[in-house]
């Protein structure tokens, strides 16, 4: 009631032809229309365009090819250019629902005041119940619906005009939920190899080739070949004294080369006969004395770790 009275008194003091909000919107469109030029094509028919766009304006039908004037009844920036060329004002081509007289006609009636509940007449009808509130399914929206000409948020990335790419097969036109790559029976290893080849083709790099696997041999030839390899790898007792000890390296887990066999360390029995001390002695008749045995015996170690003092 108070709002209607305020609106009615305020519009009576306003001197414009259109409502204040519509007049402000029209003034902005007048400024934007300066970048357009028009060409007369017929009676009240104009071709309005700029460096980036071109539209057709008909002042008799009050239409424009951009469809903005048809939707809201307010002349667009293209129509304002044609209206000024025709030496008229845009306010005359605005829809009548935005006029001041229409606004005053809506708010001219006064709502009658209502007395208190104690003065109400009794009708004998049941008391009214609260209406049933229908709650629609899903989460309620939190963002408001924006206007068509409202600018977007410049700090938020938009997904418009961007192709949809699948996360499985990396192809455009569908997403991973509707991908049919797994229906063909492709294993994960085959899919990984295919994706590497496709990536190499896109980047212009040759695809990596897997190392060739050795051909399997029949079981009848394997023991013979293994014994030959062991005999060729292990040197004789006469060659071990002259050749340096080979370094033993472990083959990697993924190495395709044959593993190196273990070579035993030198022992007393494998030493050549020239390096072993002779057991014959002139005075003892081939029997070694206690001093000779002590000289050949290795020195004992103290519990601390050093050699025993002689």
From TrEMBL:
Organism (species): Quercus lobata
Protein transport as UniProt keyword: no
Domain SWIM-type: 46-87
Top-level taxon of the source organism: Eukaryota
Protein name, UniProt field: SWIM-type domain-containing protein
Compositional bias segments (type: Pro residues): 209-221
Residue stretches of biased makeup (Low complexity): 273-282
An MF annotation (GO) of this entry: zinc ion binding
Keywords of the record: Metal-binding, Zinc, Zinc-finger
Record carries keyword Ribosomal protein: no
Region Disordered, residue ranges: 116-310
